[in-house]
Structures are given as structure tokens and as C-alpha cells.
Amino acid sequence: MNAVKEHIDKLMQELRRGTITIGVLSQLSEPQYGYSLVTMLGDKGIQVEPGTLYPLLRRLEKQGLLQSEWDTNEARPRKYYLLSQLGREVYEQLCIEWEGMVNSMNLLIYDKGGKKNGDG
Q1: Span 110-117, mean pLDDT?
Q2: Are residues 39 and 112 in contact, defined by beta-carbon separation less than 8 angstroms?
Q3: What whole-number distance in Å separates Cα of residue 14 and Cα of residue 43?
Q4: Cα separation of 49 and 35, whole Å?
Q5: Which residue of 3, 39, 42, 98 has the fewest CB atoms within a 10 Å radius of its CB?
Q6: Closest Cα partner for 74 from 42, 48, 37, 36?
Q7: Closest Cα partner for 79 from 36, 24, 26?
């Protein structure tokens, strides 16, 4: 593996780690179970492993951002997650913060003419 790819892989892992939470919260305005979240996020270009997602869901629930309920009507019981009222409020504020960060980064990355800074 060349040095550039190695650096990109590590930096992208850091970026993904910081964005998975907002991605998960964005999909929980309606009840979802873990595997459905993995699939939904994957369909939208956000790859998350179940081994990453389930601990995150438990942490968000413990923080009061999610509520959960077991559905035992199916052959296989599933735990469904949904944003709590606090989770909705936090998600709304995170979206505002996200937009601000994106706008700030665009100002850093692109000049007034839309050309990427550092391209010469």
C-alpha cells in the first residue's frame, strides 16, 4: 500500500467515526432495528459495520437520545430504536452545526471562483 493511500485510509476512518452518529440519528425519526439501519445507511453511501453500529445504538440509548422497544411478534425478536424528544433536539442542533462546518470548510477549500485552493 502506498503512503498516500495509507494516510487517506486513516484520515477517512477518523472522518467516518465522527459522522456515523449524525447519520444514524438522521434515520431514526421512525423505528428501525439494527440491520435495517446498516442497510439504509449503506444504500445512502455510509458503510457501517454491525460491530460498530450496535455499541453506538446502546450508547445513544444510554445517553437518552434514543428509546427502544422489542418486537417479539416475528419469528426473530428485534429491538427497534427511535429518536427520543431529547434525541430530536440534539439531532436538529447537530444539523445546524454540521451545515456551519460544511460552509466553513468550503470557504477554506474553494476560492471565490469555485476553484480548489492549493491547485496552483
Answers
A1: 80
A2: no
A3: 21
A4: 10
A5: 3
A6: 36
A7: 36
